[in-house]
Amino acid sequence: MHQRNKQSSWFVWCLLVATCLMLSPAVVAGPPNILLIVSEDNGPELGCYGDPYAQTPHLDQLAAEGVRFEHAFVPYSVCSPSRACFLTGRYPHQNGQIGLATHKFAMYRKETPNFVTLLKQKGYYTGLIGKLHVNPESAFPFDYRAIPGANFNRRQPVTAYADKASEFFQQAKTRPWFLSVNFPDAHLPFLKQVHGRPAQPLSADDVKPMPWVGVDTPRVREQVANYYNCLARLDTGVGLLLDELEKTGTAVNTLVIYIGDHGAQFPRGKGSVYEGGLRVPLIVRWPGVAQPGLVRTELVSTVDLLPTALAAAGMEVPQDLPGRDLKPLLTAGSVKDWREYIFGFTTGSFPRNCYIQHSLRDKRYKLISNPRPGTKNLIAGSYLDESHPHFVISGATAADQKTISPQVKAAFTRWSTPPRYELYDLQQDPYEWNNLEDDPDYAETKQRLIDALTALQQQTRDPFLDQGNVEAFVKEQLAHRDMKYSQQKQFRWSYLDAFADWRAAQPN
Predict the structure, then answer these.
(1) Short-list 359, 322, 353, CA closest to 95
(2) How many angstroms separate the Cα of 6 from the Cα of each of 10, 19, 20?
(3) What is the pLDDT of residues 294-339, one digit of tens each?
(4) What is the DSSP string of 235-283?
(5) Which CATH fold topology does 30-336 show?
(6) Which of helix, strand or coil describes residue 2?
(7) Which of 149, 206, 441, 490 keeps 20 to 30 A from 309, CA to CA?
């Protein structure tokens, strides 16, 4: 009898171990599903990043269940170039999408490998909910598409995104899948409440502008309040989406990545190469792999997402990608030989906002390179000059600017007509108010960053390393400020051929 009890106990123990192993993500058959959640025009203004006004419980919970990256960045702080970067794993000058798709900017070639084409080779069922906004769209042959427009008027409620995700999950059946869900919040217009969400919206009296904005008036506070209301609505949508994932029973084998596509549309944010434009939230949840509640402070970029996904799927990561697999950062402990620098870039994204800038930062210092110093920055004008044809409501009016400090006024002047270089000590000056480029005490740091930026441009064959290419691009952009090209079906920017040829002529 005793022997039989021992055998029975041993059988039960083995059964429990086997069950645990069967349920463990580490041994689930097949590669993980991949859910990429993208929000519009928001930096890390979330509760899990310590923001005092954010109402984001679902994203905060996602961070508690996964890894939150404190220093995550996009290479370009405007929609189309940013999305092309994370979808292709390449910098804007490498893939060619150096402006808005709605203004005829495009990738050099539709054969550019990307999330969709590469994961389909592994048998993934692929889907996109929300906008793509990268040209040509044929480069991304998703198996499933829903809510293809930008939905900036929010006619489609956040519930629609979850409903379509449920439909996608049903169609994927037992295949591994990749789904990108792209929410319209927090893009302008900052709508206070849509379809009853948020239930209790914030007002101007409840908030203050983000510290990097530099302007604090009742008018600006109203915009800021509604920006946070957009984030609350986004958070609801994320919660509904994750609920649908849970219902499938496959969440245990799903790599979830959440990012903002770039910073918020306030002065020195979207469109700029300041931290307010380039720094974004990045959260990764991967049951059994990512350590819950971990915070990493390494410099990471959205070009790292494709290498991470490919490695997770058991695929070879192309050697020519500038990004890196994030998996070593998903558990505690030091990681050797991680990147030292992070890269940023802008062209202004369309002719009426044209201005070229590069940036490079390490953990403490930030360099901004302006290859056409002393010329008018049209991006800044869209935030600071009410006569600009695209002045945004979340910018700073002349009345707003009468209230700013001398320090902020000097920064706005510098942004409007930039010098050749800008240098910031982000440890002492995280909001980039004090330019140190002429300070002899920082001459060595400045030169080190200039050399590192030049080396990166050479390594990645950046056409804007050649001043002739800079001048030719700007000349063509400024010649098309009447925007008549928007009515020309066959219009094609000359850089698409000239830059591709220039890159082909450079050594690898």
Answers:
(1) 322
(2) 6, 20, 21
(3) 999 999 999 999 999 999 999 999 999 999 999 999 999 999 999 9
(4) HHHHHHHHHHHHHHT-GGGEEEEEEESS--SSTTSTTSSSHHHHEEEEE
(5) Alkaline Phosphatase, subunit A (3.40.720)
(6) helix
(7) 149
